[in-house]
Every structure is written in C-alpha cells, then in structure tokens.
Amino acid sequence: MHVLSYIPTGLLSLLCAWYLVPLAYANSYFVISQPAKGEQWVNGAVNPISWTKGLLDGVNSLDIELARLSQDGLIFVARDVPAPSSTGSLNLLIQDIPAADDYYLLFLNSTHGVMYASSQRFSIVDANNGSAPASPAAGAPTVTVSGGPNPTAVFATTFPPSANGVGAPAWRAVEGAHMQLVAVASAVVFCMLGGAWTVL
Predict the structure, then answer these.
(1) Is residue 119 within 8 Å of residue 104, measured between CB atoms?
(2) Which residue among 79, 133, 171, 173 is the one 20 to 30 A from 73 at the CA level?
(3) Number of Cα atoms under 13 Å in the Cβ half of residue 135
(4) CA 188 to centroid of chain Cα atoms
C-alpha cells in the first residue's frame, strides 16, 4: 500500500489546495485618505475627498454617502463616481448640513449593497465657527450637497454610467484574474485526482 493512501482524502485535498493559495492574490485594498480622523469640514466651503484603492479590484465606479453615528439617515452625495485608477478624488461643497462631530463617508455600490470602505470620523462645523478648509483637489469634479438626511432624496449628482463589467462579453468579467482562475482550476483538478486515486 502506498504511504499517501493512509491520509484521508479530505485532508489530502486541503493540503493540495493550500499549496495553491500563494497563486491567488488579493486586490481588495481601499483606503479613504481624506477626510482624515478628526478633520473639520466647513459649511459653505469646498471640502476634498480622496482615496486609494487596488488597481485590479474590478471597481470602476462607486457611490458615496454621508452618514452620522448618532442619527439615522443618509445624505446621498454622488452616484457612479468614476474610479478606474488606483487613486481618486472628488470635491464636496456642503451647504446647510447640520453641524456635528460624528460624520463619516461610505464608499459603496448601492445597487448591490457592497461596501468598499468607510472614512474616519470627522466633523462638520458652521462657516463662522470653522477654520480654513483644506484646499480642493485639483482637476476633480465638485458635487454640491445641502440639507440633512432625507430618505426620499436622490443622489445629489449622478455621473455618467461606466461599464463596471455590466453588458460586456463574459470573458471581460474575468479579465485580469488569470492567476485566480489557474489556482481554482488546479485545485479542482487535484481534488478530482485525489478522488480518483482513492477509488482506484
């Protein structure tokens, strides 16, 4: 009898698959760099938003919402914000947003409910109480948001839709995932060989 025949097939399959894990790399990196923790945004001023994300993560556009920790409700900022590269930015002109110190931004796909990232906690202050805001991001579009949370409101701005994998040929959906496909196919082949080996 062969030495490997004493190893349970489930364990053998797990070991074979474990050796293929380095072939599957992750592209799920998403960090909101602005607003930073404790930053003050000023009503009536343009405030910059910036982020860094994985280049091959498949996220070509995203939705941005403004939320508070202490109250229910969202302020819908922008829909389908283009994010094809690894860094992005947007300017936000806020008007008459209730002043508080428990705001944060949500970056998500509101259609599918997938959350990409949330910002650090920051505050919004009235124009006469705040310090000078950070300078706006150069070359970035500006979105204007006003008022408090309203469940019947729509996004303040909707950018033109991007493909984001929708309506593209099926092979385009897996473009850039060659290593993951090889890893999964190899794991399936090794599992099938392990099963055949057990039967024989």
Answers:
(1) yes
(2) 133
(3) 2
(4) 30
CA dist list (Å): 88 to 26, 49, 112, 178, 182: 20, 8, 21, 26, 31
Q: Which residues pair with 40 in a beta bridge?
A: 123
CB 127 within 8 A of CB 44: yes
pTM exceeding the 0.70 threshold for the entire prediction = no
The conformation of residue 141, written as its DSSP 8-state character, comes to -
Count how many residues are written for the chain.
Answer: 200
pLDDT digits (tens, 9 = 90+) for 140-164: 888 889 888 887 888 888 888 765 5
| Strand residues in 20-151 grouped as ranges (E) | 30-34, 40-42, 46-53, 61-68, 74-82, 87-95, 100-109, 114-118, 122-125, 142-146
Q: How many CB atoms lie within 10 A of CB 181?
A: 12
At a CB cut-off of 8 Å and minimum separation 6, what does 56 contact? 27, 176, 177
Token pair in block for residue 114: 């997938």
- Please state, in angstroms and rounded to a whole number, the distance separating the CA atoms of residues 32 and 105: 9
pLDDT digits (tens, 9 = 90+) for 7-47: 777 776 767 666 665 555 555 678 888 888 888 888 888 98
Q: Which residue has the tokens 């998403």?
A: 30
Judge contact between 106 and 120, C-beta under 8 A: no
Nearest C-alpha neighbor of 58 from the set 33, 83, 79, 31:
83
45 close to 122: Cβ distance less than 8 angstroms: no
